[in-house]
Amino acid sequence: MHVTHVTTRVLRTPADNPLVVGLPVGDATREFVTLELGTDAGLTGIGLTFFGGPLTKALQEAIEALGALVVGENPLYVERIVDKLRAAASGAGPGGIFTLAMAAIDLALWDLKGKALDQPVHALLGGYRDRAPTYASGALMRDFPTPYLKDAGPRLVEMGFQQMKMQLGGESTVERELERVRLIRDGIGPEIDLMCDINQLWNVNQAIDMGRRLEPFDLFWLEDVVAHDDFQGLARVADALTTPIATGEYHYGIVPFRHMLEARSVDIVMIDVLRAGGITQWMKIAGMAEAFNLPVVSHLLPEIHVHMMAAIPNGLTIEYMPWSLRLFEETPALEDGQLVVPSKPGLGLAFSAETIKRYEVS
């Protein structure tokens, strides 16, 4: 079996979130680049990536250029192909467009491998369990009105979520920040896991001060409290607080994770499959985290991350950010706060013809 052709598309979809009820969406959009790798065996592997803004076209062109190097290759040899692409484009650096483009190809290769072997990707990666916990994300954002939060948390619990994430860093005073957490915690009760994302908006001293003030709310983790590459600063925060510190989503490739782990700057390792460079690199990062006795969580793309998170012994929970769900005909089932791994070969996903027809950018 060999790759014979590459097809890419740009899809521009509404920037909505089905977990958010009663707030206007406006005319904001998201742009995805989709990929299909065809083979002489009649199998097609799919991948996707996204960057946003004016560089989407450049990202599509990068995928097509790297994809041309894959034509003629046997897609079962994923590691060899990934190394070939890295060697060919090494001058572009380890991050940014190159890594995001390589991720789309890597995803499609694993999808093809699963289809060729008639196995879900999850089984090829280790098959540790057939489902994994997931948490509601994007429904409790920092720019949402405070009164909205009072009902939003309980609504997520009614939907079956036992875990959910909010954001902080948008209020003008400490007390107003704490009030947002208080409203949500009072609404969902003490048994629901509540995470909090700062998105790098605090400095080290703020993070330590706010972290201590937040300890009575029993947060499951604090995420990206300071600049993602301030490993020493993150280590200071992690040492000062009892609440676990999660970070990693902003890192590209595997090398920054080594530095982060060696600096003991994190309690929970968050990996984004696109910024990591695909499933191949994602699994290596998860292995590094396991060697440091640390759990792993995912960032975005729950329909793909369910394969990796359920395949490893140190997978903690999947971010259920439903930005990309409409891209697919069918997505993993959500049952009792857990995502179920698809049993179909490969990723178990197929792009929605209706979505392509409606949202493709010509």
What does this structure look like?
- The chain has helices at 56-70, 78-88, 97-117, 121-125, 146-158, 174-188, 204-214, 231-240, 255-262, 273-276, 279-291, 302-309, 353-359, and strands at 3-14, 29-39, 44-49, 131-136, 163-167, 193-197, 221-223, 245-247, 268-271, 296-298, 315-320, 334-335, 338-340.
- By secondary structure, the protein is an alpha/beta fold.
- It has two domains: 3-118 and 353-359, Enolase-like, domain 1, CATH 3.30.390.10; 123-340, Enolase-like C-terminal domain (TIM Barrel), CATH 3.20.20.
- Strands 5-6-7-8-9-10-11-4-13-12 form a ten-stranded mixed beta sheet.
- Helix 8 (231-240) links the parallel strand 7 and strand 8.
- The mean pLDDT is 96.
CATH topology of the largest domain: TIM Barrel
**Gross geometry:** globular
Oligomer: single chain
Radius of gyration: 20 Å
The proportion of residues in beta strands is 15-25%
Q: Determine the mean pLDDT.
A: 96
The CATH top-level class label of the largest domain: Alpha Beta
Unreliable sequence segments: none
Query: What would you call the structural class?
Result: alpha/beta
Number of strands: 13
End-to-end separation in angstroms reads 31 Å
